[in-house]
Amino acid sequence: MPAGIFRVCLVVITAIVNHPLLFPKENATVPEYAEDIIQKMKAHEENLRLEQLRLEQEIARQEATLKALEKPTETEEQNIKEPIPWDLWSAMSMVIFLLIELWRQDYQDGNWQESACEEDDMAVLGKAFKGVALPDKAALANFYERCILGATGDMARKRELVEGFADDLLEALRSVCNRDADMEVEESIGVGSMYENWRVHKPLVCDLIVPFTPPEPYCFRSQTWCSRESVPPDKQGYGTIKVCRADEDAVGCICGKTKLGEDMLCLLHSQTNQTRRLGEMEDLLCLKNTQYLDANQVMKWFQIAITKSWNKISHKYEFDLTFNLLDSPGALRIKFRSGKSIAFNLTPVVQCEDSDAYFISHFPRSGLTADPASSTDWFVTFAVYERRFIHSISKKLPANACHLSCLQILSFLHGKQCSLTGPSSLTNYHLKTVMLHLLQTRPYQDWASENLEARLQDMLKFLEKSLQEKKLCHFFIGNRKVPEVLNFPVVFQKAEPLNLFRPFVLHRDAYRKTVDTFHEMLRNTSALINEYTVHIPSVGHTNMLHKESL
Description:
Blueprint: H1 2-18, H2 34-68, H3 74-81, H4 83-128, H5 137-151, H6 155-176, E1 184-185, E2 189-191, H7 193-196, E3 206-213, E4 218-224, E5 238-245, H8 271-283, H9 295-313, E6 319-325, E7 328-336, E8 341-351, E9 358-360, E10 378-381, H10 383-394, H11 403-421, H12 428-441, H13 452-469, H14 490-493, H15 502-506, H16 508-535, H17 539-549
Parallel strand pairs: 3-8
Antiparallel strand pairs: 1-3, 2-3, 4-5, 5-10, 6-7, 7-8, 8-9, 9-10
Helix pairs in contact: 1-2, 1-4, 2-4, 4-13, 5-16, 6-9, 11-12, 11-13, 11-16, 12-13
């Protein structure tokens, strides 16, 4: 009996060792070891077959012994009963062995090819940066002066023009709206690359957010994904906004929690009042039959309000104002009579409690990010905190620090590569997130201007590692090392980190396209820099020619 149990355990252990799941995928990313692993698996499989044949012979001998004893005595019957458990253990071991063997075959047929593809992708990605030689410091500095500074020299002037016009437009909007029934808009806030001084792609588009509040006696009560116990991955980063009366208890009326007698009636939530209340909610831009703010209705209201306000002040300006993009309701364009134009985005937002985080009604999305399932789901943006962090840390860095220069060069190269090979799922926001992480981890003195080449390499390596792991954490969400001077809400610091590269796990085609574009950008870096440096005159040379012409 002990010997039989030992044999069964030996078979089970051998089968488990033979199972491919014992070798984690993390340890199987080196292609040159694949042949050795396959040979070992075949050797284990052959040993199992031999053990199976030996067990079958043992079972056959036991059956022959039982048939030979036609009339056993009581003593013999007791002796014969001993092999019966052995037969039971043998049968169970065979069943377990067959199940594991079938599982192994399914794993090999279904997953081996996919894991091999992942190993190939990771192997190539890991070696991509090693063979790239970036231009030297002088070439990078020359390239930055010619291509970046030359393209963004009038950034401040455009910001000033757009801000002045937006203030006038919003003031007119306040005058045309009914203060007793319409939403009330506040002053606009500049966010994004134009206000963080790193935008390189033309046209230079200013992004302005406009907080708004409901008319009295109503107020907004927001709920983020952090305050819920279980949230689906596609709902992370979103929240809902409930429109309530300011004098209404947040937990609601007690009539919903207590059984009222037949002769008692809730005057606040009677059927007539409830119908009237839902009608008021629709007037307050809520989704039909709900108290939750509808992003689509907000954008429609905002477009109509902007049109009315422009009609009121258009006589003061010698240009036209039009909506720029149909799929981006807040995109506006100023068209001058000379043919030139300036684009800017004006997007309504709702403040998240008493913080500088905002629920944004319309958010530009990449090809990976799907639209929210419901128009009552609002994306939470931390653009104000991002601008504030860059501004505050810039004061601690050396003079003429290279952090924004690195981001601008990387954004420029990636944009040019996408124009050659097609769009990529990698966005400028991903690139900025890489810079924010490195700003927090590297010493301040490392960002001196003479370290431009080294810091650019750091950003490329960080981005390469993030693509390899399909993991790039949001800088603020789940980051407990955010400087206290920012007054960042603790609820977001304690939240689970948000992986911006999570869609790559689900969209393999988009992931491969992004990786290929990244590889091509690395290979073409020197060629792109040299090409644009040769064909574009320096800023100083351009200014000198302009003076001579005068």
